[in-house]
Amino acid sequence: MALKARPLRLVVTGVESTGKTTLARAIAQYFGFPLALEVARFDQAVHHGNLEAHDLDRLAELQFNAALEAEQRALKSRAGGLISDTGGLVLEIWGTAAFSTVPKGSRNLQRWFDFYILCTPDIPWEPDPLRSLPHHEDRMALHQAYIQRLDAGAYHYVETQGSAPKERFLSIVQAIEMAMKRHINE
Fold it and tell me: How far apart are CA 174 and CA 186, in angstroms?
């Protein structure tokens, strides 16, 4: 089978402290996909806690650029896909919750991806300077907002299962393989 002109665009999304980064790295390693890291992890406004609504617009643009760079690496290496550690849906839900606004560019970034991997909040919360939801019920309520938005956007997605990194990874491998086959045949 010949490779499609562009690689499959995968994104890991979900509530904070659900293992998104760990899972994205495992997918990248297993499938040989370039990885676009979450740009907010390295952003000074985020780290200093003085984030404003316009910062989310900037983060959406930076995350899109990181995904585009990963796509260029995938094209160059002839990888069948790429994986992004986060995407526009996280930024939209974050913007809506924190600032009652949808960041510019977040919806375009959402539509850019072919397949979503939604991390369920079934692992213990770990403290981190970027996290603010230690209560499981708050994380579950926000997780429902992700499901509603994915369903409303008619996005293709799979939810992780299990509380161990390997178990979570294995729960989505088959779904990624099926998404790759569907992408090649489109």
Answer: 18
What residue numbers bound the domain in which 37 lies? 8-185
Residue 127 has pLDDT above 80, yes or no: no
Helix (H, G, I), strand (E, B) or coil at 7: coil
Cα of first residue to Cα of last residue in the chain, in angstroms, is: 13
> Would you say residue 1 lies in a domain?
no
Among 65-74, 81-90, 145-154, 157-166, where is mean pLDDT lowest?
A: 157-166
Output the domain CATH number for residue 70.
3.40.50.300
User: What mean pLDDT is predicted for residues 108-124?
Assistant: 92
Specify the number of domains making up the chain.
Answer: 1
Q: Could you tell me the two tokens for 70?
A: 């990963």
Cβ burial, residue 42 (10 Å; 0-12/13-18/19+): exposed
Q: Is residue 83 within 8 Å of residue 12, measured between CB atoms?
A: yes
H helix intervals, 2-119:
20-31, 44-47, 53-77, 88-99, 106-112
Residues 6+ apart with CB under 8 A from 41: 21, 130
User: Is residue 2 situated within a structural domain?
Assistant: no
3-state helix, strand, coil in the chain (%, to 5): 55, 10, 35
Q: What percent of the chain has pLDDT over 90?
A: 63
pTM for the structure as a whole: 0.90
